Model the fold of this input.
Amino acid sequence: MAEVIQWSLLGLILLLLLGLYRQVGLLTPANARATTRGGPMVGRRLPGSLLQKLNEVVPEKASDGATLAFVHESCTGCQRLLSDLNLVPTVVKAEVVLVLRRPSWQFGEAVKELNVPIISDAEGQLWRECGITETPLVVRIGPGGRVLEREVTHDVSRVAPAKP
Done:
């Protein structure tokens, strides 16, 4: 009987270790997780369809680089990002381009009043191609559309380059 209990405990410990191994992402530092979870990865190029839309909205940003903010209207962090957006020009030198996923008419109209470039992803295809799973996601890209930095944050200045 004691042998059966020992083998059962050993099996339970093995299962716990396997579970821990699968969840090893939870044990990595927060700054490492921020660059490896859903969404565009640092060092990789954004999908061509998003770069094409960016070029249509702000042609000069597509070649020089840009700061993109992926926001959704039901996200409270996104609402905070949008309310702080008027402070961004005084802190950072990059203009922020909003990427909205399936915006309602009212939300789209309200965001237009912010006077910032907007890429509207009505079908959600751009978000799927980028693998966006968390919001608000702020991504800074360099020339050619390579991701230089990314973070899930309502504070654009954490990712966008600061003014000198």
Observations:
- The chain has two domains: 2-29, 35-158.
